[in-house]
Amino acid sequence: MDSDGNNVRQLTDHPAEDWAPSFSPDDDKIVFMSKRQGNWDIFLMDADGSNVVPLTDDPGEDYAPDFSPDGQRIAFSAMRDGDRDIYIMDIDGSNQYPITDNDAEDLDPSWSPDGRYIAFHSDLDGDKDIYVIAADGTNLRKVTLNEVDEQYPSWLPK
Question: Which of 101, 100, 136 is nearest to 117 (CA)?
Fold first, then answer.
């Protein structure tokens, strides 16, 4: 829809659930999660809803995609080895690899505006806290320090 709430359009029309859309930085593409293949996978489509293509097809479930600021990569949560970790892939679905690998539930990645870091929430220390990790998987650090659950991190724009 327009920013004033007018011109609402439905972009997907599929009997499966479609969730968690994220626009590419140039507003040309939308990445989202869907059960179109039987479990949660990541899909890409043009911003007008056309040309829907799967980016993942894994027996584990893939969640919460987020475009990198340069539009070339996508961060997402994936359950591939018994728990959820943060993964990165190229925009065409190739080159999928984890940047976290622990026994915790790591969810809802959010790229920093400069593309150098990814924030996410995790129960690594028992409750849900916000963590930041470099996009290359180094320098993991916890950024919330209380016993209340914190989730769904987001960065301020530049």
Answer: 136
Q: CATH number for the domain including 128?
A: 2.120.10.30
45 within a domain of the structure (yes/no): yes
Provide the domain limits for residue 86: 18-142
Helices (H), the chain: none
List the pLDDT tens digit at each of the 158 positions of the chain: 888 988 888 888 888 889 999 999 999 999 999 999 999 999 999 999 999 999 999 888 999 999 999 999 999 999 988 899 999 999 999 999 999 999 999 999 999 999 999 999 999 888 899 999 999 999 999 999 888 888 888 898 87
> 9-43 burial, b for 16+ CB within 10 Å, e for fewer?
eeebeeeeebebebebeeeebbbbbbebeeebbbb
Pick from 111, 152, 156, 103: which is nearest to 128 by CA? 152
pTM of the complete model: 0.92
Domain count, the chain: 1
CA angle 111, 59, 55 (to 5 degrees): 45
